[in-house]
Design goal:
The protein is mostly helical. Helices cover 41% and strands 7% of the residues. Strands 1-2 form a two-stranded antiparallel ribbon. The protein is elongated, with a radius of gyration of 24 Å.
Length: 82
């Protein structure tokens, strides 16, 4: 039978929780940053970001792209659905 030192286990868990709480207070905690260079002009790239048929070709989980009614408060955005 394996004996567990619950006091030591509790201290390890408490230390981990305190560490995560401290690290979660950093300025950029929870934010990821990245960049990529694409060998294409903005005119070539932009349609792949806003045209539903093209967008669904490279975003594998994307099922539907709906364009809202542009007459409602000047809304000009795409609604992505999965």
């Amino acid at each position: 039978m394996v004996e567990v030192d619950w006091h030591r286990s509790g201290c390890i868990i408490d230390s981990a929780v305190v560490t995560l709480l401290i690290l979660g207070q950093r300025k950029d905690a929870g934010h990821m940053h990245g960049s990529i260079e694409i060998a294409a002009s903005p005119q070539q790239l932009f349609p792949w970001l806003v045209e539903g048929d093209k967008l669904k070709q490279w975003v594998s989980w994307l099922v539907e792209v709906r364009v809202p009614d542009p007459t409602v408060h000047g809304v000009e955005r795409l609604v992505y659905g999965s």
